[in-house]
Amino acid sequence: MFKNSIKLGAFKVVIGIILALSLFTINPLATFFSILFIPYSAKLLWRKDEPPILFFGLLMQWSQVCLKVFYANYQYKNFSDLFIYYQNINQAYYYSLISLYVITLGIFLIVKNIPMINFDSFQSTMKSYNLKKIVTLYVTTICLTPIILYFSHAFPGLQQFFIKIQDLKWAIFFFFFTYYFLFNQNRKLLYIILTAEVIFSLTGYFSSFKDFFIVAIILFIFIKRTYTYLNYAAFGLLIALLFNLMIVWQYVKPEYRNYLSGGESRQIVTVSKAEALKKLYDLTTKTDNLKYEDGVTNLLDRVSYIDIFSASIAYVPSNRPHEHGRLWIDALKRIVMPRILFPKKTSIDDTEKTIIYTGVGFAGANSGTSISLGYITENYIDFGFPGMLIPLLLWGIIIGLAYKYIIQKSYNQIWGLAFVVPFIFQINLFEMALDKLIGSFAGFFIIYIFLNKFIIKRLDTYLRN
């Protein structure tokens, strides 16, 4: 059953010790089951000789559920004391964590029988590609990004299409990053391009800079066969750098976004990249006033996403009945009603839906913010607990089927691995609204099928010549 999974080996002893110690924390059960999810999901989702996309995707969702447990232990506080809507926070926590266990199981039921990839064969095939053409293609995708963003705003009916096209840039990034590290090429150009990309990603409305760190870590783990102490130190340094960047981002974000949007209550950028970078520099030089612990608290408040679930549990079904599948039906209907064909289709207002099912008066789109319930919360609103676990198990199975199709049906083995890289951005957000999750997933998969059938063969021939 686990023949294609990674071996935990000596880590089993370490995990056992950590789990035993977790029972002596101030939040023992919450900590125990939070830690247990890591080896559980690793054993079920981390497949040998493949990028650990599925594991990291679920781990990122886990972080949005569990990180405050560890922070509460650090502060020696009861877990519920760290939340605004604390009354039902324990239910929200366990419902969310159990949901992740169930989704993981659903994925595993499908991927457990996918034949293993031979890494030596992968390396041999990868060597047949032309590095100069890989670099040229990747730089081209970078240059096309602002054009794609322009069209996504110019044609709202096709916005999801253009966003998914942009996501697929990560498939080319797979070739770009993997080739340099697999064959020990001079990485100066790689570092220059990556540094420039991270810097310019800071000029956008959202914190997309973290995506480069996440994908780079995943691909490095995939490529490296053995690890030295220097590698572990580099991992630690990279994670610490990302963590601190996110703390600073949370501190400057409100004023910076207001500047980017020109003071408008919309998620747009109205200034040049040079102006944005100058403003960001000015704001970050003021972070001397930021207390580090306050920064950590702000970051955890943003990352953690079970507070709204707690508010929903307090409101549904006591003030509003369960919807018995209506939210799922609405999400599925949106897939078969693309806005380009149905221009009068109502826009998704996440905050309005959150207000309806929590009874809390959140600031909405008019103030430039969007607060979603999160897809697991919406499953609770539809079916309650434990009924919500059935559609979530099926969702895990769907994720597994999509992953299996990409691995096995792509033009070749290399492209299969390349296309699962952007797949992580379809499964990594606990906070994503159900209708957006289903639409994003379907849009990505449809575009993948089109590219795989009509484009990739020509692209592959170009990269090999």
From TrEMBL:
- Asked if the record carries the keyword Membrane, the reply is yes
| UniProt keyword terms in alphabetical order | Membrane, Transmembrane, Transmembrane helix
Q: Domain of life here?
A: Bacteria
Q: Where are the transmembrane segments?
A: 13-40, 52-72, 92-114, 135-155, 161-183, 190-223, 229-252, 388-407, 414-431, 437-456
Name by which UniProt lists this protein? O-antigen polysaccharide polymerase Wzy
